[in-house]
Design goal:
With about 325 residues, the protein is an alpha/beta fold. It has ten helices and 14 strands.
């Protein structure tokens, strides 16, 4: 089969990440780059071995050779570009968070139906070997009934002053909205469904560079699954982590415990048998990008719904809205 011609709309950091992982998929995907700065698009084409570049997003969308686009710009512009791409008959991979508002998903779902094209939300974490293995372990009952789920993503990593993610209008929300949604997806996609949820946000820092910062960098989320298990997610970008990045999370069952490094470095299972240790459960694609693109290509070629569909991503956004609705409330919300 001929490869999919894929144009990146936006030449920022995340496009570099995607491009590096696509290097070994050239039989399936060939890339081109579009930017409002033509010189930047040309630079990305040269750096990543692209087949072309465009002086603006409209030029890429009008090119009949382009089969699909990656919307890799600030969240504020995702809806506009996704709708334009679908109207021009392109398949779409839109970075996550996909859209600022929950209602935006329905707008794009309707546009997708009119265009008859594939839309995948770029939640590469869904495809990580770590996540796949955790879902398999829970489904197999290796730790029995799930009782507690404890997710940790804590590290001291403030964004630079000129990073657009510091602008809540551009990013669609604060730090937790822009990044924490990946962890809400993890918590809500392991098997059982989250039925009630509550967010707790610490006060802003009283000293240091984040003093009085309205863009609060930490959130605690407590939730309960439909099987009765309870869970908590600890998110922060202002607290030092163990060994500058090592983050340990756990799933507690009535017959054992799964301990895992949140980035996917290892999984330790202590169940009814001897402890099992898995180092680097998927090193070759540890971040899941290649698996995500394989799903995208398969959905385009075989006309099926990708795993990370608009509908699946909408459920994550619904959880996010419920968290913010309860931050100043004493009552948990039902997504």
């Amino acid at each position: 089969m001929k490869p999919i011609y894929l144009a990146f709309l936006g030449c920022g950091y995340i496009t570099q990440v995607h491009s590096r992982h696509l290097h070994k998929m050239r039989g399936d995907i060939v890339c081109s780059y579009a930017s409002r700065d033509p010189a930047r698009a040309a630079e990305y084409q040269l750096r990543f071995g692209g087949v072309g570049h465009y002086a603006g997003y409209d030029e890429a969308l009008r090119d009949p050779l382009v089969d699909a686009v990656v919307v890799a710009v600030p969240t504020r512009y995702h809806l506009e570009l996704a709708l334009q791409a679908l109207e021009m008959g392109k398949h779409v991979l839109v970075e996550k968070p996909a859209f600022p508002l929950l209602d935006d998903y329905q707008t794009v779902i309707e546009a997708r139906a009119r265009a008859g094209r594939v839309v995948l939300v770029g939640e590469n974490d869904h495809y990580k070997p770590l996540r796949v293995e955790l879902r398999r372990l829970l489904a197999s009952g290796v730790i029995g009934e799930l009782v507690f789920a404890h997710f940790v993503t804590i590290m001291k990593k403030p964004k630079s002053a000129d990073d657009w993610r510091n602008d809540e209008e551009m990013a669609g929300g604060d730090a937790f909205f822009e990044e924490g949604i990946h962890w809400l997806h993890m918590a809500g996609s392991l098997g059982p469904e989250i039925r009630t949820i509550h967010g707790y946000r610490p006060l802003p820092s009283k000293k240091g560079p984040l003093q009085g910062d309205a863009r609060r960098k930490s959130m605690l989320v407590a939730f309960q699954y439909d099987n009765g298990a309870a869970g908590a997610l600890y998110y922060s970008r202002e607290i030092p982590s163990l060994l500058r990045g090592l983050r340990l999370s756990r799933l507690f069952g009535r017959e054992g415990i799964i301990t895992f490094e949140s980035n996917g470095m290892f999984i330790l299972v202590r169940g009814g048998h001897l402890p099992r240790f898995s180092l680097l459960p998927g090193f070759r694609d540890i971040r899941g990008y290649r698996a995500m693109y394989r799903d995208f290509v398969s959905a385009i070629r075989n006309e099926h719904t990708p795993e990370m569909s608009l509908e699946r991503a909408r459920e994550d956004h619904r959880l996010m809205d419920a968290v913010y609705a309860t931050v100043d409330s004493m009552e948990p919300a039902r997504p």
